[in-house]
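Worked example

This section walks through a single chain of length 122. The input is the sequence exactly as stored; nothing has been trimmed or padded.
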Amino acid sequence: QVHLEESGGGSVQAGGSLRLSCTSSGDISSSKCIAWFRQAPGEERKGVANIDLGDGRSWNVDAGRFTISQDENVVYLRMNILKPEDTAMYYCAASRFPCVLAGLGTLDYKSWGQGTQVTVSS
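Given that input, the structure is written out below as tokens.
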């Protein structure tokens, strides 16, 4: 399996920006889709964005503020105009299925990073 490690989280004021990084190592060739998820305390883990490593196509839940991109073995999540409701632990995950099949549910993602905390104050 691929090993994933997130970085770039932190505490920002509402309206600020962060860029999260997901660095892959190990069996990188097994991954066809990388996705970002987030989970606030007491809530379900929810998909934020994914990017297909084969064709570069991507999808995200808030295209007006969030952008997912990939450069070599790093997948980024750029988050602009952050809101307090964006506060969560952010995880990246890898799927052996292409994104069109993996989607943004957790079921088909078998490799996960440890998470990076994002806190947005009002």
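What to look for: The chain has one helix and eleven strands.
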